[in-house]
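DOMAIN: structural biology
WANTED: fold as tokens
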Amino acid sequence: MKYAFIIFSDPDIKSELVKAAHALHYAINLKRKGNEVLVYFEGLGEKILVSDNEYIKPLLNEALKEGIVYGACGYCASPPHLNIKDKLLNRGIRLFGDENDHKDLSLFIDNGYQIMLI
């Protein structure tokens, strides 16, 4: 199976942080069981990629190690929005789109992924 976890959850809100952590945990486990898995960060969920939160950071590092972090939305990371584009690029996170081009989920649907929105 092919799964794309799209994480929108804001890590500054505890209940959203827990959702994101579970999504990363599930994605890692599905990958280890032989599934094709990717994780994409959208909107406020992109803050997870630059967070120092002790709860989410180990899971993010494990997802990076497993090679399942596909990238993040360049539109949302751009200066008019979250303004973390440079931080993400410095961490080696691939960005899709920019402040003039907001990509949609067809990035994954067109390639046969089952979408999981978190």
